[in-house]
Each structure stands twice: as C-alpha cells, then as structure tokens.
Fold:
Amino acid sequence: MPKLIIDNIETEVPDGTNVLEAARSIGITIPHFCWHPALGKAGACRVCAVKMIDGPVKGLQMSCMLPAQDGMVVSTTDEEAVAFRKSVIEWLMINHPHDCPVCDEGGECQLQDFTIAGGHGIRRYDGRKRTHVNQHLGDFIEHEMNRCIQCYRCARFYQEYAGGTDFGVTGSAGSVYFGRQQDGQLESPFSGNLVDICPTGVFTDKTARFRARYWDYDMAPSICPHCSLGCNTVPMARYRELLKVTARRNDNVNDWFICDRGRFSNACVNAPDRPRQALVDGKAAGMDEAMDALVERLGEFLELHGHESLAIVGSPRMSLEGNIMAGRLKDLLGAGTLSFFSEEDHSERSLEAVSLRNAGKRASQEDVRCADLVAILGCDLLDEAPMMALAVRQAWRNGARVYTLGSEGSIDSAQLKLFETIPIAALTDVPLVEARRPVVICGSRYKGLGVIEAAISDSTRLAILMDEPNDYGCALLSDEYGAIPLFRAMADKRVKGIISFEADLSEELLQGIRVLGAVDWRPGDVLNCAEVVLPASAWVEQDGIFVNYEGRAQRFKQVMQPGLPIKGLTPELHPPRAHRRDTPGGDPLPSWRIVSALLERMGENPAEEPLSGRWEHLRNLDAESAGQTLASMGQE
Ligand code: FES
Structure:
C-alpha cells in the first residue's frame, strides 16, 4: 500500500492505484478525458498532467499513466502543470465546433466542464477547422464527429470492453474518425453506452434529442425492470415524459454500464394507450368511484360464490410492496387462491432457485467479472440477461475459460462473438475444482436445478437467472403466503373470479372467469376483460423495491409524476385555460396504495408502510447503496 502526498495531503492507496485515482480518493479532481475507471488508462488526451515534486519520479507527468508509489510528492496546482493542462485544452478545442448551445451534451459535458474549469475562454486560433461527415448510426444514437477530442473511449469500450466489431477508429495524419465502415445501425447490444462514455457530444441519445437540458430533467436513482439482473439506472423525465435512461454505477451489479434494452425500451411509460383512466364496465370513472364499485361487486361475489372462489393475483413485474399488499388483501378477504405467478413452470423454477441452500454463494455480476472459470448452462445470455453476457466477456478477457451447455437451444450467434466458448455435454465435464473463482450461470432452459448443489464444488458461485425483475421476491412471498400459480388453481376449477395486480394473463386463461378488477399500467388482455380497471403508476412514478436474481433487494425512487406527457396534448388540455389541481391523466397510483385504499374501504386501517414483519428491515434501504442481499439479512 504506497503512501504519497498530493497537494500536501498524505494518503495511502491500494497497490496498482494510479496517481489520478489516488487524488480522486481524497477529493482532488484532476482533469481527465481518456481515462475511465472501467476502461483504465490510454494516455491519449494529455490533460491529466501533474507536477511530481519529489520521490521516485520527477517533473511533469500524466497522472493516469503513473502508478502511485511510496514517497511521491505530487502537486496538481503547480504553475507548470496548470499551464500545461490549459494549453492541452486549448489545442483540443482548436477543431471543436463550440456548438454548446445546440449540443445535447451541454450541461452534462465533461469537455465543457474542464474547459471552463481550466480557464480557457478565449479562442485564439482563427484558422479553418477540420471537419467530418457524420454517419447515420441507427435510431438510437446521434453522431456528431466534429465534437470529437480523440480520447478513444468509444472505440475502447465498443471493441475491447463490449466485443463489438462494426465500429472503430480510422485515421490519416491529423484526421481521426470514430464510426462504422458505412452508415448503419450499431450492432452491439451495448451501443447505448457510447452516449454515457463519450466525454463530449459525439454520441448523444437520439431518442431524447433537443428535448431538455441536464438541469431540466426530473431524475432519481432507479432499477431497470427489463430482466432479473437489477441493473442500476437513472431515468430522466421532463414534462411527465420519460425521455431517456442512463447507467448508474454499482460495482456489485452492473458496474458502469447498462444494455440497450434497459436504455431504449421504455417508451411504454409514455404510451398514449397506456391505462390512465379508471373504468367501470368500460365507462370512465373517478378512482374513488371505481374502487367503491370494486368493493361492492366483491362483496356480492363473495356472498354468491364464497371466499374459496376468489383469486388475488400479484406479479413478478410489480414492486415488492405491491405484492406484499396483495398477500394482505388475500388474508383479509380469506380468498381461496393467491398467485404471484400465472404459469406453473415459471413458479416452479423461481421457487426452486430460491430454495437452494447455498444462499451465501450466489454470484453477483461482479463475481462473474472476476471469475476464472464460467460455465453457462442452458442459456442465451444476450436474450435473457444481456449485461451478464458483458460480465462473462470481462472474465474471458482476463483469462477465464467459458464452458457452455446449450443443447436445449442454440446460443445466439452474437453471444459467440463476445467470448470464446468450450462446448460441454454435461456439467460434470467442467473442471470446477481446478478453478479458484468458478461461477455457474443457469438460464431458464436449464432443467437440473434440483441437483445442481450436489454437482458443484464448494467454492463455486451460482447465478440462476430469472425472467422478471421481482421473481425472487415473489418466490419468497409465495412461501410466506402459500401462494400457488394461477394456472394450477384454474385447472382445479375452483376460481370463479379474480382481482389482478400488474399480472400478464392471457385471454384464454381467463375464459369463463369474472375479472372483478384489474390494476395495471400496461395495456393487456386482463384489462380488456376487467369489470373495474384501476390505473397503476409505472416504476418510474413511484418508490419501490425489486429483488434481483441473486436475492439483492434494491430500491427505485420516484422519478416523475404520473400524467399524460405534455407533448401531444390537445389544445383543450394544454396550455391549461383554467387553474386546476389535478393533472390530466394523473390518476394512476402505486399498486400497493390501491390495495391499501381497498383495504380501508373494507374497514382496515390505511397502510402507510407496506414493509412490515420480516420485510421491515428494508424500510431504510438506501436507493444509492449497493442494495442489500436478503441472505445477509437472514431473510431467507
Ligand atoms: Fe490521462 Fe487522458 S486522462 S492522458
């Protein structure tokens, strides 16, 4: 652990830390463009210069390239270093278009920040600027090459970190170009990270182009709902419209990145046909009126058919809070059936995954990135959990062997480009005992979960992928409340009516069943069949918790208010002609609050906090923490 002095502050850092990181660790920011914590050093931009006053190295040095050593005395404020950095910024800006007013990166631009911070405000060069022709890179990413400062972050991420082959750098003399061989959609399923990683505005999110400045956005820490990995995100909204999603760092989970599905698949939140209006028998109603109608019909139904005939249906795409409250509703009503899963297979597999006893050995994405052997069983990672494929690639880049058992379906060819694999016929073919940090990843097609613990070595960590963001939480709740899959209850013919909460149920499954009420924020068959529809808020419109595939509870915070996006409103609704307290389309409530309101109508006290009993520990879960594994809290 080298000890060094930076700007008169003594510090001790782990071996292998560079001077730039050592300075960051004590709150000193040295300007940098090409260095990135996930990509490491490149020494391309030369803006991180510091003066080494004393110790094993002397003189002006690039702090990102220099490992911290004992006895170093570093000055970031030395006149020579400051002047050097200033001149570097000036030459980086020579060809820059200075188009901040029309650049989407403005306000969140590292180049803008360090240019201003470095004191470069007057342009002295009056020659012609070097210009480039931009490319069409598909529907998601805008290309503006004139803004490039040649830090190489994009090419390093795309090719080295993410294994992409259709994008890179070409250069001749002073003209260096980052792009594809020809116009066309970027092929990598991680291409959206170019937007986050570019320190200026060469790559910006086309889906949010010219819609807002950084300071205009409503934003909050959140969790991606598109698979079971629970990658950390920051959704950004304006005027009740979710405009874009960026990656949020969590070293244990997604590190610095997210996949394109998580970044670009969120238009459903803004969809005009999204349920935003309560309905009773297909007719518009207020929320209170609709809830009253549901309680009244429920009373009649129970009197006519008995409590055994009622099913309460939660969902693994709903928050933990919503599902807990669905369980409470079932208890209060004495309903015959509670379901968190509709399909038998889905339920069985989730319960089996959660019941494995090696809870302490579940593999996070970080465990996968650090593994020296990875076995992938019955899984197309790019389809089921793209960021897990990226984690496997990092392990492979560091020398891990990757074995695949994919006999029950072909592995996506794109996955094969990310890492080389060794095909195996059975898990016993994998030399797990020879590895120091082996990880086994089981996809949803893998049928051997029941015997997997006996088949792996003591040091092996397991990642059992699931389908939905809250499968794990729902499996725990199924145990707690004795829930069964709806399909099984339907087969017994005991269910005559249901109330569903964010559940995806097909029209066929609902044949001959009364859907007394349906609560959801996405359109679907179940809403079409429901007598009473109650609109729920989407995950970005409420606080809640998802429990990911490894049993890590993570909180997402409310980003935006529910309501119709202002863009697209008819002149009757916008601009408003009269003062009004309500928001157009602003009725949706979090599902757990709808359950609470229903319980109140049945004589219960309103629940201000759904997390109680064994879940009480999660009340103070910090959305900006790494999350909390339930096993570590003794919650399994
Ligand atoms: Fe050190 Fe670019 S950050 S050379």
